[in-house]
Structures are given as structure tokens and as C-alpha cells.
Amino acid sequence: MALFYLLYYLKDHIGVANPDEGVMLLTVIYAVCTIITAIVGGSLSDKLHRRKIFVIIASWSVSSATIVMAWAETLAPVIIAAVILGLAWGVFTSVDQALINEALPSEKNRARDVSIMTLTVGITNMLSGGIAALALNYLGGYPGLYLLCGGVCILGSLLVVPVRSSR
To answer: Are 38 and 90 in contact (CB under 8 A)?
Structure first.
């Protein structure tokens, strides 16, 4: 969600004179940070044989980035949020996939289980636009939207704790 509405957020909420350039700058920052930490985070998680702590810390970090975006009034804090978001998302995506594979009930049905997971992610992405529209209308605009995103990240991190098949 932090990225889906970035152009409008920069234009309407932050008041950036050229939001297209702002989106490009933030996307490059986010992408570089994501690539670096996806490699480093995944490798470190494999080396330490730990998954949950990486996913939890990454989720809380994504939440902190969205909170920064909720309260930002200039581009500088949004750049900081893009760095935090990229660093966290790289770790999250690499380690979360490993955690999911460890948590699948059997090797025999892995392809089916991964396809169900992929389908649920797709459905969630489809619904997120409607949820975002509701948040923008009823939760106070972009601050409400990004605080909602932060809350969902925290909730998601708590749902990882009971997973027993991964450390």
C-alpha cells in the first residue's frame, strides 16, 4: 500500500512539485535497499537457522516506515521511510518465503499449498485497493491509510509467533 498510492500521496499530501520524479527517486531507493537486504537477510537467516525473528522484525520495520509516512509533511522523512521500507521488505520477502516453505504440512502437496498461498496474496492485493479507498475516506486520508497499514503489519507479525515448524 505504501507504494500503490505513492504518486497521489506525494502530490496531494506532501505537495511535491514534481511527484513523478519523487516516485522515481523513492522507487530507486526502495529497490536498491530491497535487493541488498533480500540477499543478506536470506543468507543470514539460513546461516542462523532462524526465520520467525527476521519476519517479525521486518514486519515491525515496515510498520515503522508506514508510520513515518503517516506523519511526514515533507519529502525528507518519506525518503527515510523508503530506506526503512526497502531494507525491511528485502528481509521480509526472502525470509517469509522460507518460513512458508518450512510451515507447509507436507512435501507431497507443496505445489498445491504454495499455489493456494499465491492465490491468497493475489486476492489480498485485489481487495487492498477497496480497503485503501475506504481508509482514505473514513480514516483521515493518507495518515489514516498508512497507520492502518502499520497496524496490519504488526498484526501479521503476531500471527507468525504460533508457527511451530520454524524457529
So the answer is: yes
Mean pLDDT of the region 143-166: 88
**Closest to 10 measured CA to CA, from 144, 151, 21:** 21
Q: How far apart are CA 69 and CA 150, in angstroms?
A: 10
Could you write out the three-class secondary structure of 105-136?
Answer: CCCCCHHHHHHHHHHHHHHHHHHHHHHHHHHH
pLDDT at residue 167, rounded to an integer: 66
pLDDT of residue 3: 75
| Residue labelled with grid coordinates 530506506 | 83
Residue 31 buriedness (CB in 10 A; 0-12 / 13-18 / 19+): middle
* Highest mean pLDDT: which range of 4-13, 58-67, 120-129: 58-67
- CA–CA dist 153, 17 (Å, integer): 31
Which domains, from first to last, does the chain contain? 6-160 (1.20.1250.20)
Q: What is the pTM of this model?
A: 0.87
Cell of 108: 507431497
**Grid coordinates in use for 137?**
475516506
